[in-house]
Amino acid sequence: MMTGLKTLCLLAVGAVVLSGAQAQFISVAPGGSGFTSDTCENVALALYQSWECVEAGAGVTGGGPNGLATQFAAARKANLNTVRFNAFATMEGQNLQLPSGRYNATLLVGLDQAIAEAADAGLKIILTLATNWDYTGTASDTKAFYTNLSRTAGGPDDFWTDNGAITAYLAHVKNITSRVNTVNGLAYNEDPAIMAYDLINEGRCDSSNCTATDIQNWIERVAPVVKTYIPRQLLTVGQEGFWQADNCAANTQNPVPNNEGGSVSWPIQTGQNFLSNHAVDAIDFTSVHLAPVNWARTDNVFSTAWLNGHSDQSTIIQKPMILELFSTQIGADGFTQTNSSNLYKLVYAITEASINTDSPIRGIGFQLWDKVRLSPNAAGVDNKTIVSSTSPAWEDTIVPFAGRIANRCPASGPASAPAPAPSSTAASARRHLLQAARRIAPSTTPSASADAPAPSYNPATINSQVGKHLEVVCVVCGMSAAT
Ligand SMILES: *[C@@H]1O[C@H](CO)[C@@H](O)[C@H](O)[C@H]1NC(C)=O
Ligand SMILES: *[C@@H]1O[C@H](CO)[C@@H](O)[C@H](O)[C@H]1NC(C)=O
Ligand SMILES: *[C@@H]1O[C@H](CO)[C@@H](O)[C@H](O)[C@H]1NC(C)=O
Ligand SMILES: *[C@@H]1O[C@H](CO)[C@@H](O)[C@H](O)[C@H]1NC(C)=O
Ligand SMILES: *[C@@H]1O[C@H](CO)[C@@H](O)[C@H](O)[C@H]1NC(C)=O
Ligand SMILES: *[C@@H]1O[C@H](CO)[C@@H](O)[C@H](O)[C@H]1NC(C)=O
């Protein structure tokens, strides 16, 4: 991690020198205390999910490229500053990659269009490189697509371990990230509008064939390689952020405690392990999803603990965090519009408080805006998740939040001293650690002084032990190393 941090600092300096006034690559600030660009010292994200962008770019749905341009302009007008979408298609029969291993050239240009239109509108982009979910049973860029390409792979979960599947995934990621956009002429990995990539959306184990170790090993194997393809852009995992039982947060902050009713809980079965998955050096920032209705945890206590828990553990590995997907489902399980707008208020308030206090959570994205023009019965979309532009969540929470975020760093010109100004790296990192320590162990009554002793562990040691993260967990959970 320390080497990784140094590299990032050099990259940040390099980006300023090389890119001139227009380009604004986003970097992770030294010490992981946030995101910066050459015109904004403290970048925060007001993000939304879009859908079927590649198909719309190819003219198949969504009003084509003009429909995308209209949507992206409306997003900017509402002060949203970042859009997250798939770098592939999800409509039935619209597969970016063909079983031959070749590409559908029309859809590749559709991806070019989507990226160019979002960039033109002034949005930053988070691109998802693959997805756990095969909505049609035949979609490319899914686990099964890659295992089907490999002669040695069996079921979809061999995606995590099979050499052929991993090689095919990496070859595709290399092709995409080095592709020169036919609309704006920029190589994807030289386009400052593309802020970051998700390795895979909500990657999970879907069978007992797969373990948390498989997913951890996969991240450790592919992330450093992908990072070499995108040296000026950022990388994250793209998962929901569940914990395994070796992390005490599994019992208190997963949607259900482990072994409830005598069986291994579903969050554990996903094989995700937030802390060790994101501790991998090549992962630049942490990201989580939050779907309270889907997870049957609509209580405020859960959402609050979910955000605080991940924030605390992001502090430990010194990486900023994004809640890249927040989703509610109005009308499901007695969950009303009022329930939804209340939860929106809570979750956005926690995010904004984190942004304003220099704490890890630096952005939030909602699922799914009604300005996203979907194909009829769009695959992968639950209409209950759609946020109407006349709903209280939109009018009272999302738009005012986005406006305040926009005021921190004007779209043009140098950063106008956003408040609070970032402090020195060491002091900022220490403040994060102290905040985390206070939340975790309120009984230890830490001194409010900035000179209070830092917790007695060394991040450098911890970060060099990816996969052996018990020490970190012990600190987080206040357990002794012997337990
Ligand atoms: C992906 O790139 C490799 C070279 O890195 C090339 O051999 C392959 O043909 C490309 N795939 C497609 C479908 O263009
Ligand atoms: C490629 O994409 C275009 C546009 O979406 C579609 O019409 C065509 O059928 C696709 N071709 C193949 C071979 O999948
Ligand atoms: C993978 O292969 C199986 C068996 O041939 C097929 O049913 C499935 O549709 C394929 N999946 C994808 C995503 O190509
Ligand atoms: C489990 O792994 C074996 C060995 O790779 C494979 O043959 C089998 O198809 C896998 N099953 C599933 C459901 O992924
Ligand atoms: C909706 O809000 C009401 C009033 O606060 C609460 O009693 C109820 O449990 C909430 N419903 C759900 C599904 O969270
Ligand atoms: C979801 O909404 C879309 C767009 O309004 C509509 O075309 C579709 O029929 C709806 N799907 C369901 C299952 O209601």
Automatic annotation (TrEMBL):
GO terms for molecular function: mannan endo-1,4-beta-mannosidase activity. This is mannan endo-1,4-beta-mannosidase. It holds the Pfam family GH5_mannosidase. Residues 1-23 form the signal peptide. It comes from the Eukaryota. One of its GO terms (cellular component) is extracellular region. Its EC number is 3.2.1.78. It is an enzyme of class 3 (hydrolase). InterPro entries: GH, Glyco_hydro_5, MAN-like. One of its GO terms (biological process) is polysaccharide catabolic process. SUPFAM superfamilies: (Trans)glycosidases. Its main location: secreted. Keywords: Glycosidase, Hydrolase, Secreted, Signal. Belongs to the glycosyl hydrolase 5 (cellulase A) family.
